[in-house]
Amino acid sequence: MSVSSSVLVTGGAGFIGSHLCEALLRQGRRVVLLDNFCDFYDPAIKEENLREIERTARACGGELLVHRGDIRSAEDLRRAFGDLGDAAGAAVIHLAAMAGVRPSIENPLLYQDVNLNGTLQILEACRNSGIDRLLFASSSSVYGNNEKVPFSESDVVDHPISPYAATKKAGELFCFNYHHLYRFKLVCLRFFTVYGPRQRPDLAIHKFARLMAAGRPLPFFGDGSTRRDYTYVTDTLQGILASLELVEQAEEPLYEIFNLGESQTVSLREMVEELAGAMGVEPLLDRRPMQPGDVLCTYADISCAKKRLGYAPKLKIDEGIPLFVQWFKGTQGRG
User: Of 37, 66, 130, 171, whose CB has the highest number of CB atoms within 10 Å?
Assistant: First the structure.
């Protein structure tokens, strides 16, 4: 078995990326972090995430190399990839992307540029560097309004209903191209509504917590019956790290797709009730119509991830929400 001594994490200062970088450092790996610290949300949040990663690196004696750059820039990628060292002992975990369904409807050209052009630049940088082990962060949004639940990796996903979802599906297809043409060992991970400490401030749980703390009404779309498969970040991390181990151990080219969800589905109404209870408030609702691009339900079939990765999510929402609120109150909900 060849284990990656160096791992490049794109989007490494973000929500999932910062937790992942810390986990990799604790494993004794050299971590190369690439992030552009853009203003999609307050860059100060990512700066604080980076300080947390640096504290972890010092505490465990790990090697952390930080690059402030853009995945669309071949020169920025050349510098970051240069810190990975021996290609035979390196891997890439590609998390960086423009995120969010509603913003992608407002600015589809930006999402196409970052998520597609950027992903192709990453794939080319891997090919040119001789690195054949890659994880790609996809999304449950590729399933669209799939009528069959739970969602399985074998389901047809030809009808994404937002530009964001379309870019993630296209990213999976480009990944398959490079697996087929250049014998990459490659795994695409479909994340399902990840939440927890450091969650992006634009995502519902974090946004609602801030509004509740301020005594302000929550934008409540539809009748509250839309459902999501909320996944606590530590469970998502377990799936990412197991996927990394899978590509490291693979002796032949590999292309697989895995759902990383909690395999439960919770309504918007239930989520608000859980969050309000943990916050100790009575929520105020600003009822609004459903938004274009929003799916009615996400629900992960994780049987494949269980079998191939040993994936075993542990935290249900009634345990995860209080942990999030504990973090939120401890940081005054930064952002």
Answer: 171
Summarize pLDDT for 123-160 with one digit per residue, the tens. Answer: 999 999 999 999 999 999 999 998 899 999 999 999 99
106 with 293: CB under 8 angstroms? no
Task: Kindly give, in sequence order, each residue whose CB lies less than 8 Å from that of residue 235, ignoring residues fewer than 6 positions away.
Answer: 260, 262, 313, 314, 315
Domain that holds residue 109: 6-192+232-262+300-308
Ramachandran quadrant class, 35 (left: phi over 0; alpha: psi -120 to 50; beta: rest): beta
User: Which positions are catalytic?
Assistant: 164
pLDDT of residue 3: 58
Burial of 5 (0-12, 13-18, 19+ CB in 10 A): middle
Is residue 280 within 8 A of residue 234, CB to CB? The reply is no
In a domain, 253, yes or no: yes
C-alpha 335/C-alpha 332 separation (Å) is 9
What is the separation of C-alpha 109 from the centre of its chain, rounded to a whole number of angstroms?
21
